[in-house]
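PROTEIN FOLDING TASK:
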Amino acid sequence: MKKRWVFYTLVSLQVLFIVLMSVSYYAMDLWGKSITLQTAPVDPRDPFYGDYVTLSYEIEEVPEDKWTAETEVDRGERVFLLLEENEEGIHELVEASTLFPEPNGEQVVLTAKHNWSDPSTGQHRVEIGLNRYYIEENTGLDWEERREGLVEIVLAPWKQKKIVSLK
């Protein structure tokens, strides 16, 4: 009798975990904040998933004057990007730091991972983790011809993020 109870509890917890993951993905649309970022897509193809666009964001290139980390940052270390909306409705980088900044007004914080830095130029490269977006089959050439675009991203209060659309 005790073994059945343990089995049903474990199965129930697994089902609950999957349901909560699914609900959190869709709940982002209700409670998340939508932001727009500037990007430059490239069109590769995945044999299993089809056409997708590789995205590189302007905010992932951090100049020295916007870098506020006090110590040297290792590859893969978490970095916080403070973003603010400009006149065109596009979010731009205000500062990048290893410490969580306090956003004011319409500023938002986006988490990223440090990739590399070049001390000679003072340039830092971070990745926000939303660099691949799957598109409709056979539309890859249309996206490849575009040199830059806009990406709408939703940021959830629980630090989850997703791409909503390409513009």
